[in-house]
Please model this.
Amino acid sequence: MSQLVGIVQRLKSLQEGGEQGEVQQRLFELNGKTLCQVKYFPNKDTFELEVYDKDGKGSKYPFDDIDMTAIEIFELLQEAKQEALG
Model:
């Protein structure tokens, strides 16, 4: 559960950093591999989650809720951990 709290804290820092009106972004990685990138758009108060596949191609998903964004990132990290374990 502490990992989920950490994700929410990182997303909140995106919101706080976006107060100047600039788009903020963060990468989420596991074992040196970038799993996704999150952008926060302060003018729309929305997040964009770009999930990278094994080839590094991204699929983008919009979210208007910080909790749903955090859950998606958490699930991505959990899936990647399971795959790494074999």
In short: The first helix runs from residue 2 to 17. Strands lie at 24-30, 33-41, 46-52, 58-63. The CA atoms of residues 48 and 54 lie 20 Å apart.
